[in-house]
Amino acid sequence: MTTIPEVPATTDTDVHISRAFDAPRPLVWRFFMEPALLAQWFGPASVTVDPESVVIDPRTDGRWHLDMVDAASGDRFPLRATLTSVIEPEYLEGRIDGEQFGPEGGVTLRIWFHDHGEKTRVTLHQGPFAPEARAATASGWGESFEKIDALLAAGAA
Predict the structure, then answer these.
(1) Which residues contact 83 (CB under 8 A, 6 or more apart)?
(2) CA atoms within 13 Å, Cβ hemisphere of 131
(3) In angstroms, rounded to a whole number, what is the distance separating the alpha carbons of residues 10 and 83?
(4) 15-153 adopts what CATH topology?
(5) What is the rounded CA–CA span in Å between residue 94 and residue 113?
(6) Which of 48, 78, 102, 105 is the most buried (most CB within 10 A)?
(7) Per its UniProt record, what CDD domains does this chain match (predicted)?
(8) Other Cβ atoms within 10 Å of 140 Cβ, number
(9) What span, in angstroms and rounded, lies between the C-alpha atoms of 135 and 104?
């Protein structure tokens, strides 16, 4: 049996978000693990995700890849993660490549999915970030989660 880690202490280089979604845990999990759903919500309002770029291999040492596309310029921003732990539908962890994120040349993304009555509480912890990347990432996750809310309200999935 795999043990789900505790939420680590948050530092000034981390993003920490806790958010409830009005949907059962297996459905919320699908938004993170099914390419067609992930492409519909990931990223801030100013970007889209190229559905053809999404690759999810949901296992330890698997991939969680996508390309965000800036709506105004068309510039592409690839996100490449190696999954380090996948415990369906409770926990997802990956290491995201990219020197643009933080002082370590990449960041660790951890997401916990908890039953919360009729809802699902998602707890996200990501870091370490350089200060400017931390603020942009927190804002981007907030806008992304608003997209999930809208998709759930519209009956998507």
Answers:
(1) 57, 58, 59, 60, 61, 62, 63, 64, 92, 93, 94
(2) 0
(3) 21
(4) Alpha-D-Glucose-1,6-Bisphosphate; Chain A, domain 4 (3.30.530)
(5) 15
(6) 102
(7) SRPBCC_CalC_Aha1-like (cd07814)
(8) 18
(9) 17
Count the Cβ atoms, other than its own, within 10 Å of residue 126: 22
pLDDT along the chain (157 residues), means of 10: 79 93 97 97 96 96 96 93 96 83 75 95 93 90 97 90
Produce one character per residue of 36-66: b if its CB has 16 or more CB atoms within 10 Å, e if not.
Answer: ebbbbbbbbeebebeeebbebeeeeebbbbb
Q: What is the pLDDT, as a whole number, of residue 105?
A: 65
Both tokens assigned to 115: 């039953």
89 preceded by cis ω (within 30°)?
A: yes
Local structure of residue 35 (DSSP, 8 states): H
Give this prediction's pTM. Answer: 0.92
Measured in whole angstroms, how far is the alpha carbon of residue 103 from the centre of its chain? 20
For the stretch 70-82, pLDDT in tens is: 999 999 999 999 9
Q: What is the pLDDT of residue 138?
A: 94
Find the DSSP H helices in the chain: 25-33, 35-41, 131-153
